[in-house]
């Protein structure tokens, strides 16, 4: 077997054992990819491939120099591949190659973007879902259990919220193709099948105990086998990658429903919290609100938005901090300036624990630790900020320990260290005695070489002499050709160049050996000392993470204050759950940025729980409802809100159902999605929730739609008691306010003069019966004849309605008429029910036939009875379903 065959064979066998997508195998100074892997990297990374012969077969081959692997690795992993790296080691019997680490999307440390990078595990056990999320770049590790009726949906919501880069599905989840499909559709995560045994509760609990210790595991108190399985599997997985990342995960956090208000994935999308409906960040609430100056701050703000709080204490504290910061302009700007010097400490801590931090990283740790006392000082010195919860935030981390690490780093690190850690020059003088001696020795020798030229020139009266050093020849004395024969006898000629000769002397060789010995020892020693220093930092990972989190929190609070000041937001007053919501002059946080916004009030109370919002198309109904949801949400992350004043009874969840834009693309029926979402809300909302319904029922036939909207309103009002805003174009629903105590009508006003409609954007009490849909069609450029014809048809339909309305109340007065609209001809025929004239609306001459005769002629003998029954129906007392079946029956009788 040739060496080449051996290598390809070795590559294949290592690959077969590795369970990864790609293997990079070190061969001397290169990492090589062979066969399919070579083709893959060739295509993905534009690497040049060549051929390698093996057993008569030519295999594709691609390679990168050892020192350049990292960017390629990163590019592959960011494209979703799992990559194994096999390193080469020298032993007495030759080379040995073995896989030393596996890099996957969830365990890639060398990331440049600010977003969190979670690896998630999701396990199902008897209908209960356990989820765990670890961000190895920051050490965040959170677990939760979802075990309510819609546990599967809840699990998806969590996955959507964390948006992991890699998901490890548990054994049963792997068989749930539908769930896996949704994860693929809704997140950009790579799915990784980790060994099933790692998810088993026994083994998983063991892994967790090893990682966090029995006591902290007990205090976190995770009971559900599914959650233990998910958390344990992640620990096992991260360990197996061999990247040394596990050490960064120091704390296990369990979060449950109680602390946070429910905000499902649909609602997050509907409210465009972190992304717009179209998918971009620009134009989202986050993009508008974000004035943070550090990437951990930005990350934190995003997670606050996605996870509003229910706990009044936390929120009051945050609000008090934001309030103080709004009133301390100077200190606030100072804080932001100082915070601007902070690096991503959580990530740096992870790099230290995994052993990949270089001297620049440790300097960044030092400089960021110095930010903490600076922040503390600013807060302490500003009368508006001292004695606020901001102080408590800064006091949370172990500041003594943080100061100690900072001092250690300060004493140790050179100010401008080289990028590689093996070169020397990393550490300062005075840090280590032996190192100092070496440095001194080195400098002395350098001086000797620096002055050699001068000495030799003088001593031997040499012309054209110089001293140099290069890799192949080491140190040498060089004399120009013309003067070369003047070289003294003890000069040994080592090289002849075109214009000069190179010489060495015994003394020079001796000094050279000395300087090389010192350089080697200095490199080794510095590296050793540096590793020790890095380990010291790694041992304090938890403190570093705490400092990082505290700084991030101050950054977010200052950012919220900046936004509040710049946009004239107000501090909301928080009230107990279940109390009302009163907003005076509220605005939409995003729309107000680009529009001359008309503020609106809102009042929901125990007596007024359910608002039916009507108004023309495009008048601002959706905006009004969304701004309400956003104001409540902002209050529940501890932010000021866009309003003149706001009193918010805390909610336990915000649920929304608005138009489904993107579901069609996923091949799901719009109406089906609408009903699934409605169903979820009706199940999940409570009397402490806020529900936003935008045009529920629109996706089906009008009668079905009205019936569903009607019944849903009754249910939410009578059974759930959730605070609800319901926008609708079904004006029939506005009558519900007359029959249900706590339902009220509001409408967004529009002004119509001489056929011209002006949107006033003002919300007023009471219903409206106009949609101005045709006006919007006109605005949208629908052809003139269609718009005109729509107006004619509308006019006639309105007449019909007016007449019916009279008839249904008066029960057969002389005015009562029946209208027949013939779709075929577009003609409207009216007839007096008491035997008066019948007329074709458009026709000049009235018809000859009497009303009841006409009815009998058109609809048969039953017509009069049906009419009687119809006028006897008490609409308020009849359920929509009964109404529908009565209408169906009448129609059948009339058709017979
Ligand atoms: N209070 C307001 N002040 C200024 N502009 C507003 C206000 N409310 C809404 N708008 C603007 O009016 C437009 C229509 O608003 P919105 O989509 O809320 O209308 P809608 O009544 O829900 O429409 P439809 O019934 O057709 O769904 C949006 O472009 C929005 O920017």
TrEMBL record:
Family of the protein in this entry: Belongs to the DNA mismatch repair MutS family.
GO MF terms, alphabetically ordered: ATP binding; ATP-dependent DNA damage sensor activity; damaged DNA binding; mismatched DNA binding
Region (Disordered): 828-855
Protein name, entry field: DNA mismatch repair protein MutS
Species per Swiss-Prot/TrEMBL record: Natranaeroarchaeum aerophilus
GO biological process, one term: mismatch repair
Keywords: ATP-binding, DNA damage, DNA repair, DNA-binding, Nucleotide-binding
Occurrences of domain DNA mismatch repair proteins mutS family (ranges): 689-705
Binding site for ATP: 615-622
Low complexity: bias regions: 829-847
A Pfam family that the UniProt record links to this protein: MutS_I
Entry superkingdom: Archaea
Role, per record: This protein is involved in the repair of mismatches in DNA. It is possible that it carries out the mismatch recognition step. This protein has a weak ATPase activity.
